[in-house]
């Protein structure tokens, strides 16, 4: 008797996503456009260490593309306590209105200590050094995303501290027109930079990165409107989402910012203000303003 053995091919599943409608980029002002769309995606099973086979999860994506030749990035943090009524308000809206600045778009920014709002890690813009303490955020996956001499840079916290020490002095900091320290680094040189060993929890997310096809900056949030059980993506899923062309916001480099209940997205000119935890007092927000 001849025993015939049929060898089944190894099934290799990978991340897949599909916008539920064609994303449309709408111009907000010169050099700034935005899009909102729902996205279906395959979930990652960390225990089985493999991707699902169907598009069984979905998120709402809100994203902004910015030409920094015509616009600038500025942090904003109120000096005084901003009141917020959770029934009718969003904290990010109240901060923007209180500033009386002409803000084109804004998202939540740095990780911070609650409830005092102390910013963790480096944060600076063309106008001000908001935080100079690199040592307050030393998790191994953290990095600094910013602009140096008109060019984007993306460095590890470890290398930044080797060069500047735990506290970056004013003269060195002023070389940069913008910098923010956060974690983890999501995409580096067009490749996913996180392992599947990251925290396996799905929550709303926020990130900053550079568009794959241009030199435009990109700010992205998912599920900025509300938080419920298993809403959002894991960091591993999110990194694949912002790398893949088919997901409509492909980026060649990207850094994860504060997310979860802090996830916020604001477009004042069209009266759009979203924040997961409506009245959470954010350490700072990142705003887009005209030059």
Characterization of the model:
The chain has helices at residues 91-99, 157-164, 170-173, 235-243, and strands spanning 17-19, 26-29, 32-41, 44-45, 50-51, 57-66, 71-76, 105-108, 112-113, 118-119, 123-124, 129-131, 143-148, 151-156, 176-182, 185-188, 191-192, 205-211, 217-222, 251-256, 264-267, 272-275, 285-290. The chain has one domain. By secondary structure, it is mainly beta. The longest helix has 9 residues, at 91-99. The termini are far apart. Strands 1, 2, 3, 6, 16, 17, 18, 19 and 20 form a 9-stranded antiparallel β-sheet that branches.
Question: Order of SSEs, N→C?
Answer: EEEEEEEHEEEEEEEHHEEEEEHEEEE
What's the helix count?
4
Count of strand segments: 23
Helix content, binned percent: 10-25%
Mean pLDDT: 93
User: Roughly how many Å is the radius of gyration?
Assistant: 20 Å
Structural class: mainly beta
Shape: globular
Determine the strand fraction and express it as a percent band.
35-45%
**How many discrete domains?**
1
- Intertermini distance: 82 Å
Identify low-pLDDT runs. Answer: 3-10
Instruction: Please outline the major beta sheet.
Output: 9 strands, antiparallel
What would a concise description of this structure say?
The chain has 291 residues and is mainly beta. It has one domain (61-290). The chain is built from 4 helices and 23 strands.
List the SSEs and their pairings:
Layout: E1 17-19, E2 26-29, E3 32-41, E4 44-45, E5 50-51, E6 57-66, E7 71-76, H1 91-99, E8 105-108, E9 112-113, E10 118-119, E11 123-124, E12 129-131, E13 143-148, E14 151-156, H2 157-164, H3 170-173, E15 176-182, E16 185-188, E17 191-192, E18 205-211, E19 217-222, H4 235-243, E20 251-256, E21 264-267, E22 272-275, E23 285-290
Antiparallel strand pairs: 1-3, 2-3, 3-6, 4-5, 6-19, 7-23, 8-21, 8-23, 9-10, 11-12, 11-15, 13-14, 13-15, 16-17, 16-20, 18-19, 18-20, 21-22
């Amino acid at each position: 008797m001849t025993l015939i053995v049929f060898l089944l091919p190894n099934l290799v599943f990978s991340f897949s996503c599909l916008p539920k409608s064609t994303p449309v980029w709408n111009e907000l002002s010169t050099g700034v456009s935005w899009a909102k769309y729902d996205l279906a995606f395959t979930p990652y099973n960390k225990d089985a260490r493999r991707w699902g086979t169907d598009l069984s999860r979905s998120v709402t994506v809100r994203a902004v593309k910015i030409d920094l030749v015509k616009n600038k990035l500025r942090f904003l943090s109120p000096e005084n306590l901003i009141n917020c009524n959770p029934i009718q308000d969003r904290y990010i809206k109240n901060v923007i209105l209180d500033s009386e600045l002409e803000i084109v778009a804004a998202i939540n920014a740095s990780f911070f200590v609650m409830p005092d709002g102390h910013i963790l890690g480096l944060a600076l813009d063309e106008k001000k050094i908001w935080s100079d303490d690199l040592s307050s955020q030393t998790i191994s996956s953290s990095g600094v995303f910013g602009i140096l001499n008109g060019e984007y840079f993306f460095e590890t916290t470890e290398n930044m501290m080797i060069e500047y020490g735990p506290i970056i002095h004013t003269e060195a900091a002023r070389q940069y027109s913008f910098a923010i320290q956060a974690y983890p680094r999501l995409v580096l040189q067009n490749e996913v930079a996180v392992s599947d060993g990251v925290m396996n929890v799905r929550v709303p997310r926020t990130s900053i990165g550079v568009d794959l096809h241009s030199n435009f900056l990109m700010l992205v949030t998912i599920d900025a409107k509300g938080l419920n059980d298993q809403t959002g993506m894991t960091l591993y899923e999110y990194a694949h989402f912002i790398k893949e062309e088919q997901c409509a916001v492909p980026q060649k480099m990207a850094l994860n910012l504060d997310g979860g209940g802090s996830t916020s997205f604001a477009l004042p000119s069209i009266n759009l203000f979203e924040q997961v935890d409506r009245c959470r007092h954010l350490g700072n927000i990142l705003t887009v303003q005209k030059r």
